[in-house]
Amino acid sequence: MPPVSELILFAGLLVVAGGVAGLLAGVFGIGGGAVLVPVFYQIFGLAGIDDAVRMHLAVGTSIAIIVPTSLRSFAAHRRRGAVDMQLLRGWVVAVPLGAILAAVIAAEASSEALRLIFAVITLLLASRMMFFSSRWHLGSDLPGEPLRFVVGTGIGVFSGLMGIGGGVLNNTFMSLYGRPIHQAVATSAGVGVLISLPGLFGYIWAGWGKEGLPLMSTGFINWIAVALIIPVTLVVAPYGAKIAHAMSKRQLEIGFGLFLIFVSARFFYSLYG
């Protein structure tokens, strides 16, 4: 059992992480998972949690926290009329299907595999956002079916494996087809809802009965972390949405890209540092 001072430090770090995650959820239309996963990975390691389940627990707990964060962020963006509701309705099956498939894969994947997926995808997305944002387009409008269904399922799979709300992937998809970054950000909050709800139950199932899980865990969800962070993210997310609508397209892209590079570097370091 860690000393009380260490437990207090962990709790404080979690609360700070929740504030940052909630703010980013509003600014970038993400569920905060891109912040929470690396933070959880570090904190769970300091707490002595088995490496075999540490990354899985970080991803699953992040998914659980994304549920209320995404709902709150989605509501704030929808009130501004910026969400593409037609796209979301078309993904009601595709995105949750991908999130469930991600949980099935995560049940068998190693910690190293999950960290590598996280690092590679975030680096690719950062490069696209920062260096090809204004020059690289695949079309003037979103593709039709069945390609749109396939993309939605893919967003659900990769986001579920990374413990994120799908914002980083959906922002890229919509931007590639000429949609405004502010609309992409707003719609991504809704994508986070479609990923996190089935993902929550998927990660409970994937980690059910696993050894090495900490106190107050159900599968790969740690409810202590959830209880500490959710209230903070709910309060902060709407302020992030206000910031997003006050920023230019290029400011959002540069900020988003720098953030993703930092996250990617952190996980590459954990693998090869």
TrEMBL record:
What is the protein name given in its UniProt record?
Probable membrane transporter protein
Keywords of this entry: Cell membrane, Membrane, Transmembrane, Transmembrane helix
Subcellular compartments: Cell membrane; Membrane
What does the entry list under GO cellular component? plasma membrane
Classify the protein's membrane topology as the record does. Multi-pass membrane protein
- Membrane-spanning residues where? 7-37, 57-75, 87-107, 113-131, 184-208, 220-240, 252-272
Family, according to the entry, reads as follows: Belongs to the 4-toluene sulfonate uptake permease (TSUP) (TC 2.A.102) family.
Q: Which organism is it from?
A: Ciceribacter selenitireducens ATCC BAA-1503
Top-level lineage group: Bacteria
Q: List the signal peptide residues.
A: none
